[in-house]
Structure formats: structure tokens, C-alpha cells
From TrEMBL:
Gene3D superfamilies: Winged helix-like DNA-binding domain superfamily/Winged helix DNA-binding domain. It comes from Listeria booriae. Pfam families: PadR. Residues 17-85 form the Transcription regulator PadR N-terminal domain. This is PadR family transcriptional regulator.
């Protein structure tokens, strides 16, 4: 399913935070997990990850790999967990509001 690029950009940060919260991940691994649900270019993930680290929502560490050089893993900070929870609340509220609008307009989306 082709999704509007702006929709993807708006939710990519939340997807990354959510998946990192479940398990520390390296960039390529994270891109693969997100791509299972939302079609996204691998390169789109890295600017998001840099911003999350810069803003203190994620930390990084290097871990040896059996398949080449060490990998940079991302892990959620306490600040990142709080931020992710706020975004989740906002996202759910937003989706609910849009669905209410559609339902009132005669469109039953979900």
C-alpha cells in the first residue's frame, strides 16, 4: 500500500522510538523492522536516529558483530521513554479524532 510521504515522515520518529523501546537495535535492523509495517527507505531512518540522540531521547553504544565491524546500537533513555509515551498518547488521540471526523462524514474507516 502506497502511503503519503508526509504521513510517513510524521510517524517515523514514533515508530523508531517504539521499536527501540522494545529492544535495543542498530540502524539497519531498525529500518528492516519499520519496513515490515511501513514502506520506508533505509536512509530515512538515520536522520531520525541522529536527531533522537541529539535531543537526548536515545543513547548509543557499540557492540561487536559476528558479521563484520562493530555495530552502533540505539537504546531509549528515560527522557526518550517519557517522550515516546507522550507521542503515543498524541498519536492515538489524533487518529481517534480523524476517525470520528470520517465517521460523521459517512466514511467508516475504523
Amino acid at each position: 500500500m502506497e502511503v503519503n510521504v508526509q504521513f510517513k515522515k510524521g510517524v517515523l520518529e514514533l515508530c523508531c522510538l517504539f521499536l527501540i523501546q522494545k529492544k535495543d537495535q542498530y540502524g539497519y535492523e531498525l529500518a528492516q523492522h519499520v519496513s515490515q509495517y511501513v514502506e520506508v527507505a533505509e536512509g530515512a531512518i538515520y536522520p531520525v536516529l541522529r536527531r533522537l540522540v541529539k535531543e537526548g531521547y536515545c543513547d548509543t553504544y557499540l557492540k561487536e558483530s559476528t558479521e563484520g565491524p562493530s555495530r552502533k546500537y540505539y537504546q531509549l533513555t528515560i527522557k526518550g521513554e517519557i517522550y515516546m509515551n507522550e507521542l503515543m498518547f498524541e498519536w492515538k488521540d489524533f487518529v481517534s479524532s480523524v476517525n470520528r471526523l470520517f465517521n460523521e462524514g459517512g466514511e467508516n474507516i475504523g
